[in-house]
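Researcher: Structure for this, please.
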Amino acid sequence: MNATVSNARCLAREGGVTARERLSDYLEGADVRAAAALADASVLILDAQHGEPADVLDAAVAALSRAGAFARASDGRLIAVATRAALDDALAASDERAQRALHELLRAFDAAHARPSRVRLRDRELDLTERAHVMGILNVTPDSFYDRGRYSGVDAARARAAEMVELGASTIDIGGQSYAHWNPQIEAREEAERVVPVVEALLRDRIGVPLSIDTFKSSVADAALAAGAHLINDCSGLSDERLAGVVARYDAGLVVMHLKGKLNVRDAAYPYDDALAEICGFLRERTDSALAAGVARDSLIVDPGLEFGKEPETDLEILERFGDLRSLGYPILFAASRKSFIGRIFDRPAKELLVPSLATAAVGIAAGAGLVRVHDVEETAQLARMLGAIRRDGRRTLAIAPAMPRAETPEPARRSTSS
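Model: Predicted structure, token format:
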């Protein structure tokens, strides 16, 4: 018999598992810390959006290099490959010029290597440690691109919301304005008249999950929050400067989405030099504005805005690099359900896009999304539960049946004995 060849493996770190966690399966104590100090080297990029002078970036590069990290700077961008220990050493030994840049690298490193554990929505809270949560889409418009007005009445909306909760939705996102470019924007008063009665009815029904309002208008947000809604999902990236203050007044949750261009308007093209750099910079600036307006940090959620001001090539780039968004330090909302960029890839209408929509959702959840906004609640809830079961925190509380249930089979037909 031939001698067995040694079986080598590379310890993968997908799904937010760090090198330290993987090493702890095989090593203990000081050995884990020593090995992880090398294994946790990460690639970090700092884009000097606010015009950091070149000498500031050069000073940061020098400090990182002295600490044993790789670092280069040019054209307002610093690229570093460093461990957490090297970043600490560089900061400790740097002069004042470099410290702001190094603090930002440390902030991004720590955020990228951690998952937000919860998000607070007024008096409600979603635990993000075990699995991604499903946000069910409830369009109460007569011109929805997918639902075609099926749930525009209060009674229809109530029935659909109850059905989605039964199927696994953790939140309901109520929309009174379609953002498809072929539909016009409506007045705030009409939008509020569509969504507020639905909020009031669902709260009377004791729906049991937080209610989100898909709006960018501060007056609609004010009316819906006064009626008892818990979260505002703003697809415009705070284009209404008063909206964040309204959300803060109710201590509610806020989704800040990246948008290039304007809602309900489709430009001929949407060019990007570096899509994730632009998206992360936009979201950092707008979340800082929301914090300044009084929105609680643990109530903020970010969304890269798939398809909003993007071409399919850019949407695919965002999917490939979705994990970069974790560096912002906020829970991430993933929203790609049956969107046009998927339909353009497959050359199929929205009603035929369940499977590719689930595929994109799986990519988003694996890369760190804490919430997934979808039309197909049952299928996505099963997807999220399966991916959650793979995660360490999910396995700790997983209930497993003693055996796989057997499918019910009809009794065989009896043979006739008559002649």
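Researcher: Any notable elements?
Model: The chain has two domains: 18-112, 118-396. The chain has a mean pLDDT of 90.
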